[in-house]
Amino acid sequence: MEIVKGILVVMHLVGFGAVFGGALAQLPAVKAGRARITPGILHGASLLFATGLLLVASIYMMGGQPNNMKIGMKTVVLIALVVVILVNRKRDSVPGSVIGAVAGLSLVNVVLAVLWH
Q: How far apart are CA 49 and CA 46, in angstroms?
């Protein structure tokens, strides 16, 4: 089971990389007014959601007790991230504030994961 948990953690990190990296890659396009929500950002957020749920389920399956407050806060941040992505994904261009929100919310999610014990 530890191998599965390790694989899920790696995939969770890949999802973060897709969201955060995709947002950072759009920063040069903000100035030109061509920034957009790429499919990689959407798929990365979906991967974050799926692997996060599976990680929490694996903790319960191994008889552990996760920090439900932490998981709840991370879920709220992730839902806000997904809403921002879904609302803006069909637009030809999005303002820099949307790209900043995507990058910021994904970074807040990582900060919660790492610093909240």
A: 5
CA angle (93, 100, 12) in 5-degree steps: 105
Query: Which position has the token pair 């903790």?
Result: 59
CB 47 within 8 A of CB 11: yes
> CB-side exposure of 23: number of CA atoms within 13 Å?
25
In this structure, which amino acid lies at residue 70? K
- Candidates 71, 72, 75, 24; CA nearest to 45 is 75
**The model's pTM:** 0.93
C-alpha–C-alpha distance, residues 85 and 61, integer Å: 31
Residue 33 — left, alpha, or beta (φ > 0 → left; ψ -120 to 50 → alpha)? Answer: left
pLDDT tens track for 53-66: 999 999 999 999 99
* CB neighbour class for 92 (10 Å; exposed up to 12, middle 13-18, buried from 19): exposed
